[in-house]
Amino acid sequence: MAEVEGAEPPVVVTGKAHAAEARRQLLELGVDATILTEPVGRDSAPALLAASLWIARRSDAITLAVASDHHIPDNAAFAESIAAATPRARAGAIVTFGVRPTHAATSFGYIRPGALLPGDPAVRSVEAFIEKPLPEAAAALVASGCLWNSGNFLFRPAVMIDEARAFAPALVEALEHAAPIEVSRDVFDLPADFASAERVSIDVAVMERTSRAAVLPIDYTWSDLGSWEAVWNVAQRDGDGNAVSGDAALSETQDSFIRAEEGARVIALGLRKIAVVARGKEVLVSDLGSASLLKAALPAAALEGVEDSIALTSVGQWSRRLEAWLTRRALPAWWCFGADHEGGGFHEALSPQFAPLDGPRRSRVQARQVFVYATAGKLGWQGPWRAAARHGLEALDDQFLRKDDLYRFAAPGSGNTAAEDSALLYEQAFVLLALAAVAEADVAIEPRSADRAARLAVTVRNAFAHRAGGFSADLGGTAFLSDPLMHLFEASLAWLRIGAGDLWRDLAAEIFDLFSSRLFDREGGRVYEAYDRDWRPLETTSDDRIEPGHQFEWAWLLSQWVALGGDIAAAGMAQRLYRTGKQGVSAASGLVVDALNDDLSVARASSRLWPQTEWLRAAATLEADPIARDREVCAAAAAIDRYLLPSGLWQDAPKDAVAEADHLASASSFYHIIGAIEALAVAARDEADLPAPSRSAPIWSRPFI
Known about the structure:
A hairpin with a 4-residue loop joins strand 20 and strand 21 (about 525). By secondary structure, this protein is of the alpha/beta class. Mean pLDDT is about 90; it is low at about 295-310 and about 700-705. It is about 40% helix and about 15% strand. Among the domains are: about 10-225, Alpha-Beta Complex (Spore Coat Polysaccharide Biosynthesis Protein SpsA, Chain A); about 230-295, no CATH class. It is elongated, with a radius of gyration of 28 Å.
């Protein structure tokens, strides 16, 4: 760091076993340093914060945090970037360095940069951090101007500690108790208490959550040496392009990386662009460009805690798998690509290549995405869920709110003004549900959410009330459907669950009374889709007269109504609806079909994604016998998994029945998916006989067994 003017000796954080090697290298370089040794590795957040606490006890000097395995050959350019970022760091920002990509790398995380910060010619705000993507997502990220996340930071120690204290207080508390113990003049051991610190990256603990994150785009050569190909790129190579270390003999081999560690010998014949790494009893042989996929090729349970779906036999295993897919793939992908960061709101769908596709943009999709990200925050996801939820709320107000305080069906732009401006009960119900999710997750996102919801509920009652009880589906009183009433019931229960007042209990009771007296077919144990003005089932030849997914959905909601102190008679209705829904589970495919006839034979054998999710929610709640419940929940989870793509997207038909390229991922399905994964997490806790977390504790805050 000789090029950085005024630089102080560094603080090196390393494992206790590596302290001697670190000291040897520092002496070789002629650099004085303080070495803090970890008793165990706890990822980047504890290491960086331990160093920050050490420095903060001595000064509040601007601190540069860099990883030891990064390769930056242009020292002068690196020093210039530090100088450019220093004023913003001094002012209280945590500045990271975003590398302009040279290709669509899948081994790096990405940063979506925002606008230039006021008064700064180079440093920008951070819109989002994106985890290491799959190839198609990486290409889209590069095309949209995203930067590689170098993982290097410039900040004042007090700022980093304060932000960590706000978002990860237990971590800071654990580190404050782990005061270093002097071993020699320049080596200090972090005590055994350090092992109690949460194992978490600094990105997850702080950077993805803080409002102080900023990014300086940089153009100099950088690599984190995170793959053997990256090491090969910077290594000294022979005339055939081979980087060789250890006991190795090569013939007719070119552009390859050969590493033989002590006790191993490698003989390479006729190789082209191959990585061979031999260590003890383990040997890696890979196409050089694919060596970064090693982690995915090994058993997922050993590396990620996520089992391969073929081997899953318990609710807990399925919960871990789907939670990992949700938090590591789906939520980041939909915030990055599914949100319209320029025009506001969320796109209607994404192609398998993450291209947004919009028809008329509907308010129900905006509300559902607000619900998704608020629910993710409640469950413990540490990504930018607040920003995503706020993004959707702003779109609802800016693009969909009518002068009568109802929400229009679609945003202007499709050419059908009348259809766009129509107000339907379905849309109002989902806005009410979204506001409840926000209030439950973090009322600070929208401090007026309770008042807004109460006013909208009154407006809905006045606008949609029907003379025969309940509410019509449209303002003209021409459509009478069970589905919008179901979601209005759902929103009422959501507000009741967080302790809202009599308005919501009265509304829920009114809907239940109508359901009990008119909608529920007591003889057949079912609910139909459409009714006449007197709430009698419409006689129709339509093949969607009885939908198993809605039987499950009503059953789950009725069970929630009972749990919240509602009419106990709802419990029996819920059980009957659940049994009717199970008539739609195909023995041949293991999937819920889309529609049944009156005699409960199959009317429509296709199987969309959303009924599978409602099957899981109902099974997790309504199967009384624990063994039967776990069996049914696992079957439903396996059904859902057949629609989910590794990229974080999904199809509306099972993957084994249709090519991925043929199907778009509809944003509206995300509401169903996250509801199922939440129910799965609860069932996993029950299976493991763990106590339920408090309302303030994220459901994923403790490990599953």
